[in-house]
Fold:
Amino acid sequence: MSLTIVCANKNVTKTLYLHRLTTLPYMRTKIAVANGDGIGPEIMEAVLKIFNAANVQLDYEFVEMGKSYFDAGHSTGMTAKAKETIETLGLLFKGPMETPKGKGVKSINVTARKVWNTYANQRDFRTLNGVNTVFSKAGIPINITIIRENIEDTYGGIEHLLTYDVAVGRRIITRPGSEQVIRYAFEMCRRKGLKKLACAHKANIMKLTDGLFLEVFQQVATEYPDIESSDIIVDDLCMKLVSRPETFEAIVLTNLQGDIVSDLCAGLVGGLGFAPSANIGDNISIFEAVHGTAPDIAGKGIANPTALLLSGISMLRFLGYSANAATIENALLYTLEQGVHTGDFGEKGTPSLNTVQFADAIISNLGEQPAQGAVIATEDFEAKHGISPVQNKLRFTKEGVVEEMIGVDVFVEADMQPDELATIAKKHLRYNENFELVMISNRGTQVWPTGSIYTELVNEYRIRFEKKEGSTIRQKEILHISADLSEDVKICSVEFLMNFNGKRGYTLAQGQ
Amino acid sequence: MSLTIVCANKNVTKTLYLHRLTTLPYMRTKIAVANGDGIGPEIMEAVLKIFNAANVQLDYEFVEMGKSYFDAGHSTGMTAKAKETIETLGLLFKGPMETPKGKGVKSINVTARKVWNTYANQRDFRTLNGVNTVFSKAGIPINITIIRENIEDTYGGIEHLLTYDVAVGRRIITRPGSEQVIRYAFEMCRRKGLKKLACAHKANIMKLTDGLFLEVFQQVATEYPDIESSDIIVDDLCMKLVSRPETFEAIVLTNLQGDIVSDLCAGLVGGLGFAPSANIGDNISIFEAVHGTAPDIAGKGIANPTALLLSGISMLRFLGYSANAATIENALLYTLEQGVHTGDFGEKGTPSLNTVQFADAIISNLGEQPAQGAVIATEDFEAKHGISPVQNKLRFTKEGVVEEMIGVDVFVEADMQPDELATIAKKHLRYNENFELVMISNRGTQVWPTGSIYTELVNEYRIRFEKKEGSTIRQKEILHISADLSEDVKICSVEFLMNFNGKRGYTLAQGQ
Structure:
């Protein structure tokens, strides 16, 4: 990232000055652009053509990313040069990309989001006149912003087969990660002038993980008394989104639930072809089309560039070019309102345009105002100006945490009845009188000391040992008990039980 | 469970014989009924009144379950007598129940499903004339059955705080559990005459867990060539459900995704008040209303009994009373078609009925046929006749599994940079030359030996040790390495790395 290059561009500073009187610390004027695969190059060309016609003062550095770079042996799907460019410029505008299947490589989109810590995924969904949906026909207007946590949850991709039959994925929710995205969501509401932010979750079932997310939401909410905050169970949210979507303004969610709800909302406004996506980080941000690469129509010049254009418009706002953003968005809305469309949507009665014609139609409408939903140039940008880090940033609660070790859950492979396993587990307690066997569960349901004969079992059990009252235990002892136990049963995993500030840091088994 | 009592009821055997020529092994005629909390007693009374008017040959034993039994000190929310009755009779028909909040007790609904192994949750969603929705107004008919896995996933409730800042939930997906519910889904399609079954999942991200579910689906599908099987990513499914719901017939999903999609589908047909729910097990099954207890209107006699009635109709089919089921369902559809409604739905212009009046309206319409969607008595029941188990049933793959231990992931609490942690980890390898340090990750993203300085860190790392090529390792060694490591950093958990049948039983880190 270079302050010099950025500030050196006089045109941009001037442009910005025209519609902003506050001074920006600095502004990047050059951004990295990755065309993407399939229809990517066509729609990117169309969008940049519109940008140029609107006199957007951006310079582009094209970077090498996508399927062909996987195929050429780059395991992350991008060249070292591309990575360096993106990290230097801090902003990537990208077309859709394909990750080859069956090669064991991870999704390039997910890798980019995680490695560069773009912790917030923002997607704005609004009714577009000319794009018919079940809801537009019913006269129900939609204007919802989804903020999705972008790093954690099961997207950590930490999965293990404990036995041939039992797969476990670790769902991670952290306090600093939750705070980052929730704070972003509240700030976004302020910038956009939104009045309500809901936190959707499943904390009634996932009490520690989603419970943590909800707890952080409620804490951060106290700092934003001007925004009406509420929470809602995610399944209830989905029911309401398909019946009364007009009641929601902004929703913040964990990663997977946010993924599902985002696409549901995309469906409400016409599909992925009509929804922008921004991945926001403190140093690097990514604006992208999240629809597929549509290999069946690639190269035919007929793809719909709307989603990428909407992402580009979000990007312009983010960079402070809100006058450009408003002009282009109004031209797009006006064009759609006129019934102009590509082949994938719109009235069958009117002929569809190809990609270039559609872009040209928008260009010819620059300066027009749509009849409905016209936007004005607002101050809703969020240009990040973090100094390039010299080492990885470490986020954690530094003070006021008192920990106590309580015991251990040992997960074992065993094809026996609970009583037999309890006998084996107790045998190894002879070596350490500080511990007692408190519970055995199977798939989370207690099966020892009490349980139901109707609970069916798989060949992976959890054995819970806790310290006896008044005793203290050490990690080494726990690991040695596990090692002893491994003489009789196969250990799959070992999970320590902790209390934090006197509060239990682990859940009870179902039925415990 | 008693064969004698059941067969002794001559009326039922006769009734069944009238519309079935095949002989049933036996049929339970007495079922357990739990009224539930809030509006539960009122709507249960209405439904049983309709059953009696339709001459349904069932006997009811009322059991003590719900909020007041939690309050009276029963930690599972039911009396021992209730549990025994339900296990003996094998069928529970229940109203909505409330689990007290903040007492640390688990949801009675979830406990019941898990302890009694009701592995499949079936919910049938169909357009009901007279119940207006966005989709009914658009003339889009909905007829979708969701089969949700009911035991596993994050509903196992196995969660741990690894550090004060980092919560982890274990998402469990098993081969036998997946097979049970997927097989049920295919069988259900055959019984109901459905032609298409889709498996929705997120196997592109959760490669081992949802990957296992999808793999089992594809295996089981080969046994049902008469059913068209397909799979779909769950977020794509949600987008399509809100735009083209008429393209789906039946969908099978894992637990949380199934929960979300079920409620989305409930929204499509008018909400939880219009959707039945059946929890199917091999020994015990539960039919219930899944809406809330509506404490604000409890006791006023104005609640809508439709969801509980629809669940009751499903139950009648399950028990083989399909002629009764058809008569009652047709009367309900006819009644709704006439614009008859309770206060929570229907045209504002026509006065609403109270609960008893609504039930009486349905009773007066027994024998009527609706103009649209009339049902006929079909053979689509699935009466389970499992012999009461004498011990817990253990399900696992017994043969053909070759395991190899590869290494270990050690999760530690550490507030340092990756390089420092790598130095500590390597120090302890001096004791065991069979191992090497291959990777360190943070929130699933690799940060050592390579990574990006832009990846932000929480105070919990994963350290991956693998055996060197050609060497063999034992569990004890792994646990001892972990014990040694605990001298320098706090261990949170230890997860073994295994290969099964030569295939990697763990995922790579993002960027590895």
Q: What stands out?
A: Chain B touches chain A through 141 residues (CB under 8 Å). The two ends of chain B are 55 Å apart (CA to CA). The first helix of chain B runs from residue 3 to 8. Residues 341 and 348 of chain B are 10 Å apart (CA to CA).
